[in-house]
Write a structure and sequence with these properties.
The chain is an alpha/beta fold and about 230 residues long. The protein has 6 helices and 7 strands. Strands 3-2-1-4-5-7-6 form a 7-stranded mixed β-sheet, with helices on both faces. The protein is globular and about 50 Å long. About 45% of the residues are buried.
Amino acid sequence: MKTILIVAAHPDDEVLGCGGVASRFSENGDLIHVLILGEGITSRKSERNLQFDNTELNRLKSEAKEASAIIGAKSITILNFPDNRFDSVDLLDIVKTIEKKIDEINPQTIFTHHAHDLNIDHQITFQAVITACRPMKNSCIREVYSFEIPSSTEWQSQTKDCAFLPTQYIEINKKHLERKITAMQRYTSEIREYPHPRSIKALKLLAEWRGVNIGANYAEAFEAIRRIDRIL
């Protein structure tokens, strides 16, 4: 049994990025914890108004808790860094928040965003995670992986410097995929109609395509950022 931390920028990223794998690992007895850094949705209006958006934010938090339970997460923590404005926050503040969670649960594995997603919050989340996961001698962390987020990862310019290049594939089965889809359906404000990448059909197609990449029915794909094999 191992402890896994998913660090996501916004509610729904944790499901989109590795909801199937979380379901598989939790089913196998691993402990899944979710840390969501940003509040979500407030950037959709011309001005950030937390009082005005309070009802929507509370609904989004409720949806996130329901979704995390479906994929088998042991805990979910939702913070309030400003949506699509992480670049207005000192990076150190985000790093220390992640460090605090790492100290609390001692994860061996971390999943987070691709470094070059179109979304600025995803980019900063990756940088904060890598900073918080500095490979010190007594660090509990052995593996760091980045995931792809439909409607952010593939919308970035696909140059060699920005493209998502999977090096780690994790097979999932139909049940794990169905849990991912069910969890995503809880996010009523985030789901879209096909052919949008966050539509149910598109998410199924992506899982099938990543499965095809490795000769399986379904899979999720990741970049292996760091894997450490220590002599214990």
